[in-house]
Amino acid sequence: MSGNAKLSVGGRILNRVSGGNLLLLLLRRWDARVALAILTLLALSGIAPGLFVGPLQTATTAEAAPLLPPSGAHLFGTDDLGRDLLNLTVHGARISLVVGALSAVITLLLGGGIGMIAGYRGGRTDALLMRIADTFLILPTFVLALILAPILRELIGDQTEILGIRTTLLTIVAVIGVTSWSSTARIVRSQTLSLRERTFVERARLVGLSPMRIIARHIFPNIRTVLVANGIVVIAGSILTESTLSFIGLGDPFQPSWGTILGNAQSAAAPSLGAWWFIMAPGGAILFTVIACTIVGNAIDELLDRDVRVRR
Amino acid sequence: MSGAANHNDARSLPAGANAAAPLLEIRALRVSFSLEDGRRLTAVDGINLSVSPGEAIGIAGESGSGKSTAASAIMGLLPPNGRIDSGSIRYRGLDLVAEGAPLRRTRWREIAVVFQGSLVALNPVIKVRDQVAEAIELRLGEPANAAREKAKRLLADVGIPDKRLEAYPHQLSGGQRQRAMLAVALSCSPAVLIGDEPTTALDVIVQAQILELLDRMRHEYGLGLILITHDLAVIADMCDRVAIMYGGRIVESGSVREVFTNPRHPYTQALLGAAPDARAGRRTIKVLEGQPPDLASLPPGCHFAPRCPLADARCTEEDPPTVSYEDRVTLACHRYEPNGGALPAPVAAPYPVLELGKR
């Protein structure tokens, strides 16, 4: 295919890696294929858990004996209340998906926007925005999340819904977004710095485009793929943070999440009871999802690498 | 082709401009940059230049002679540490340097640039056709569809086949990209076109094609063309007049024929003598020793004096005045007396000569 031939030209991949083209290039790598398969499975579980198991009620109502090891009837075994772990894990995917996607959107909007403005404007704007980014960069995400989550929950209350998403979930998303935009902003800024020196930006200024239109029309399309790569890594981080918050009981109490199941396993003393499956199901889900995200992120990064780092 | 007719019909001068005034006139332009250590670097040191419709002017000189800075100043593209200290740039009498200058209205609409290096001058992720249409939409205020239609005609005009219209820059060859750049520059039917090393990175065949195209466009559109290059052959081929720059000043200017056949300024002689000439069978080149001047600490007097074999005490003390001879040649050199404006005979500067091809 022509896409591959162009790869060998070197140096300018970024320009032609976009949209469907990127997906095709990814599918050429076996590691990315496996990772994308895992992510597709996750997405399906999150969007339509009915494909694999029954509705949410069947997951939360106990029907079997507690702590059954994996068997034909319960592939992943049952928890201490006799609930089917496969069912819970599949339903837990939705939270991970929503949190991952929303956090990535917030992170990319904040980080991408601030990074492009800082990089394009330069000077004082740049210095100010980047010092703010540095401040957020040195804040430990998890500790901040730990403090912010209960505060935000207290402020908004955990029963209200916004657009069908419970606010508890949104607080987690907000916390992750606020703490992770700064590294995105730095990456985007450095890209923008090199782009704005290119002649086509100069030409765009001559032609009379406003700074905002230059950013939207000439800068943004050039860093789109960098944002995609970064976004996927952000998704992985967000899923981890959400799991950890849920594990220690700061998650959404009304919907099963992988972190919550792990938390349950811990309080039911699953490890000492020898109920390894109780930990395996949610733990494995988290592990594979995060690894898959990282692989895809790295693969995109590698596809762009030569171009991104050694730009003229 | 219908290009020329459309071009002139479409042209309406910006407010404040006078159709009778010279197309583009630069007077005593000085441009300087502030350096990080606080010094100021004078890149362009009082140059005069004028361009008429349909006329091509070449600006030649070494790297750092100020030729590209002059072009940036005309376009209002100086970097933040650069500024125009004095002088004027007038487009049809409209001062582009003065406070609150209507630069925004003349840029691209009246004066456009073909940049060097089409790979960086075109946005890699936007189709070439849309990049041509961009300026038409924005500057001429035409609706998107009409702009795209016009872009299509322009691209056809510069020799990009229809089937490449939807191509991205990387899908075009180097020559096609440079053609596309030309279409972008011509998109708003400018009256002045500045070519900043427009053929530098191209191989000779493509270079010849682009130059031919540029020449055709100049005649068809009646463009005033300013060609900035260090390639003297390009200027000899393309231009009516030439200005030789050294250390931010124009040391010699005049008709290409006069300057190239009878170079008078010692620097012009060195520049022309440094190019081996295959056709003339000349196998020697003149050797110009030393380095181009450090613009941040220019010597007093003639900037070329430290490297000039003819320099004497006066050259290192007094700036040589620019004298115009018979309206054909201007010279800034103490070796030539004004003698009432009659064109003086060239004084050959004794440069060391290097013989080529000797083993």
Protein model, in words:
- The complex is a heterodimer of chains A (312) and B (359).
- Chain A is an all-alpha fold and 312 residues long.
- Chain A has a single domain (45-309), classed as MetI-like (MetI-like fold).
- Helices cover 75% and strands 1% of the residues of chain A.
- Chain A contains 14 helices and two strands; from the N terminus they run H-H-H-H-H-H-H-H-E-E-H-H-H-H-H-H.
- Chain A has helices at 2-7, 13-16, 20-27, 30-47, 56-60, 85-121, 123-138, 141-156, 167-196, 199-207, 211-247, 258-267, 270-273, 276-309; strands spanning 161-162, 165-166.
- In chain A, helix 12 (258-267) runs antiparallel to helix 14.
- Chain A is elongated, with a radius of gyration of 22 Å.
- Residues 1-16 and 306-312 of chain A have low confidence and may be disordered.
- By secondary structure, chain B is α/β, with parallel strands linked by helices.
- Chain B has a domain at 1-52 and 61-103 and 191-201 and 228-359: Rossmann fold, CATH 3.40.50.
- Chain B is built from eleven helices and 14 strands.
- In chain B, the strands form three sheets. In chain B, strands 6-7-8-3-9-10-13-12 form an eight-stranded mixed sheet, with helices on both faces. A four-stranded antiparallel sheet of chain B has the order 2-1-4-5, with helices on one face.
- In chain B, a hairpin with a 2-residue loop joins strand 9 (241-246) and strand 10 (249-255).
- In chain B, helix 5 packs across helix 6, helix 6 packs across helix 7 and helix 7 runs parallel beside helix 8 (204-221).
- The longest helix of chain B has 18 residues, at 204-221.
- Chain B is globular.
- Mean pLDDT of chain B is 85; it is low at 1-10.
- Classes of the chains: A mainly alpha (312), B alpha/beta (359).
- Chains A and B meet through helix 2, helix 10 and helix 11 of A and helix 4 and helix 5 of B.
